[in-house]
Amino acid sequence: MDPSRLHPQARAAMQVQQRVPLTRANLPAARLSMVQATPAEVGSGPAIRSVMTVDPGGVSARLYRDGGDDAKPVVIYAHGGGWVMGGVDTHDGFCRHLAATSGWAVLSVDYRLAPEHPYPAPVDDMVRALTWLRGPEAPRHGLDPRRTAVAGDSSGGHLAAVTARRARDAGIRLAGQILVCPVIDPVADYPALDEYGLDRDEMRFFWDAFAPPGVDRTQPDLDPLRADLTGLPPAVIITAELDLLSAEGERYAAGLLAAGVPVTAVRYQGLIHNFPRKLALFDAAHVALAQVAAVLHRWSEEEAGAPPDGAGR
């Protein structure tokens, strides 16, 4: 490790979560470690008007709303954790902040986890939540399904990207997609940044749990870079310099741009994987949150006069 490359807050943050070697046998301990580190990494988040458990399409989820009684635009959020850990509790503080700062409702999807529920279960759960938003229940919860975006961090960024493509294929218009330190490329050809947090062995474990050997990882649901990217919704992609996933996130941004998709891609120097979630540890996390909130404000304004589903962008 070269400490001079690390932001000072990143050096401190790397000591917060107890690292548990990732194996099938140790997975319960790794899941518990992520939960136990959450208060120190994320904090409790602000008090907001409404936090409630919902079951969109039979999928467990948590809905966050702040502000007035008007119908809220809604961002469907997929948590990180390598598809094998994390949940609505580990991302509760972040989702509270996002709802409070953006003016959007946040639907945090507690999708089924691998390896107990490998691909396509997590993707299917995200799509079921999106489909639920198009039905009669969403307005009853004060949601405006005409203004919908998808977002996620790490493996949740992968699920958000796939959900955005599935929505396009189904003729569902999305305002945009927000991918935070996303997993994109199953080839898993990672740079040697193991000492800065997330490492190559962990990523190989995650991929093997989510898409076990024998599954075709070249299909677009697993490798978004192989998909037809034309006509996808606008994207904001946040990466961190010392995250081994930064290069693939930026390749995806370049692919979207080449396909004519509006993209904003931002790399934070000296920072590590998934720093935006860790609002209690990183000043830059609040800057990234403000960027996300600003683009959601902008998309909300644009979508107010948008054509209906299937009418194109």
Give the structure's gist in a few sentences.
The chain is 35% helix and 16% strand. The protein is built from 9 helices and 8 strands.
Description of the molecule:
Helix content is 35%, strand content 16%. With 313 residues, the chain is α/β, with parallel strands linked by helices. The chain has an 8-stranded mixed β-sheet with strand order 1-2-4-3-5-6-7-8, with helices on both faces. Strand 3 (72-78), helix 3 and strand 4 form a beta-alpha-beta unit. The radius of gyration is 18 Å and the shape is globular. 50% of the residues are buried. The mean pLDDT is 94.
* Strand arrangement across the biggest beta sheet: 1-2-4-3-5-6-7-8
- N-to-C terminal Cα separation, in Å? 46 Å
Low-confidence segments, given as residue ranges, are none
- How do the helices and strands follow one another from N- to C-terminus? HHEEEHEHHEHEHEHEH
- What's the Cα radius of gyration? 18 Å
Shape by Cα distribution? globular
Structural class, by secondary structure, is alpha/beta
- Main beta-sheet strand count, sense and barrel state: 8 strands, mixed
Task: Work out the helix count.
Answer: 9
Fraction in helix? 25-40%
How many distinct beta strands?
8
- Proportion of residues in extended strands: 15-25%
Mean pLDDT: 94
Blueprint of the fold:
Elements: H1 8-13, H2 27-41, E1 50-54, E2 61-65, E3 72-78, H3 92-102, E4 105-109, H4 121-133, H5 137-140, E5 143-153, H6 155-169, E6 176-180, H7 200-210, E7 235-240, H8 246-258, E8 263-268, H9 283-303
Parallel strand pairs: 3-4, 3-5, 5-6, 6-7, 7-8
Antiparallel strand pairs: 1-2, 2-4
